Amino acid sequence: MAILEVTGLSKHFGELEVIRDISFSLEKGESLAIIGSSGSGKTTLLRCLTALETPDTGVIRVSGDTVFDAAQPRPKGAQARANQLRFGLVFQSFNLFPQYTALKNVTLAAELLAKERADYKANKKRILSEIAEKGRAALESVGLSAKADNYPHQLSGGQQQRVAIARALMLEPDILCFDEPTSALDPELTGEVLNVIRSLADRDTTMLIVTHEMQFARQVADNVLFMDGGVIVEYGKAEDVIGNPREERTRRFLERYSNERYSSNG
Amino acid sequence: MFTPEGAVVLGKLLDGFVLNLQIFVITLIGSLPLGLIIMFGSRSRLGLRVFGRKFRPIRLLTRGFVWVIRGTPLMLQLIFVFYGPGLMGLPPIKSRVTATLVTFVINYAAYFSEIFRGGIDSIPQGQYEAGQVLGMTKRQVFFKVVLLQVVKRVTPSVGNEIITLVKDTSLSRIISVTEILFVADNYTRQGLLWPLFTTAVFFLVFNGLVTLALGRIERKMDYFRA
Known about the structure:
Strand content of chain B: under 5%
Number of helices of chain A: 9
Order of helices and strands of chain A: EEEHEEHEHHHEHEHEEHH
Distance between the termini of chain A: 47 Å
CATH architecture of chain B: Orthogonal Bundle
Oligomer: heterodimer
Low-confidence stretches of chain A: none
């Protein structure tokens, strides 16, 4: 069974239909790259999945459980948050909490969730030290053990984004989503973030990655989904879609993309 | 000034200034939380659609209220609160200091509410979204993520208001509260001029202390950028 099944997802802002009738599925351990020019709806799709936007139509299922159904009343409170935690999201602009250290950024949400446990009061000390331990391990997995006590403004953009990845991993989401994770970074800092994502793919983390890094998508993603004008134009194995696209629109996009790349490098 | 009579005058000025300080402290304690409540009102999204337009009664009322309070002189508001009820045939307010406190708390709360609103609106949407995707409740996002960033951002503006408040306490002389300028003015009428100029020292010294305290608060939040 697919870990994620999306059926007939649509979303409009005012008159503009940003995504239209999107359906796809994702297997456990699979990494799927979503590519397309800006305005193609790929970020909106990600924001619909992570409940930052409410789709107009469609159904989202995770491991067979319906986490969103436009035809049903919206779940509220604890159920909504439980659904929320099925997905992790790494933002383009990191969105770390500036007043907390790297470690606290990673552990804060887990600490707040732990307060709802029935045994929290009795085992507070042990629970918090376990969370701190886990937070340090998460930072270590992105290569930032040494920066645990630094505040976000003391870190480079690449380091901040790695903290943000650790923060998302901490809650063990079923599906980890990335919204153009390297777009806000200086070119020389993208490598360290991409390497972290690559290592997650090697460990079979289920991931949805909205990206402009075609080479990276080709190397790391199992499958690629190309969007244009709010619809899925092409879907298939990464090397097929990027290396040998079937659709004319995909071909044009990749051509334009490599031209831009070329001219910006030259 | 440095005569036994001078010492008596200074004592009277000090008595007056104690009243200024009392008004200052109570106004501050009352208006900061009230300002927070007014701010929530002026950001309220509660409402309904009327002929395709969004109508938000709570927001409309609070913003109208803030407009009136900020749009009229504080001195006039003092006169209105103290003499108004009596003129309208209602039971008059007996205590001049109470009338002053009521006016000041409301007036300063209106200003603080706008400063707080600006502070909250300046926090990037991404902070709320990051909290949401991490499974935090709206309450947790506000108190654990947003609030301290807002406090840091508004401290300089709030500090400005606080220093203005120290001096504004003297406006209460318009309804004959015997604060420091009222006391000094009485001496001026008797031909004794130095007490009036000496009041400046009281304000300067106290505002110096306020400035130091504000600086300390700002430095406490220097460890992060927001």
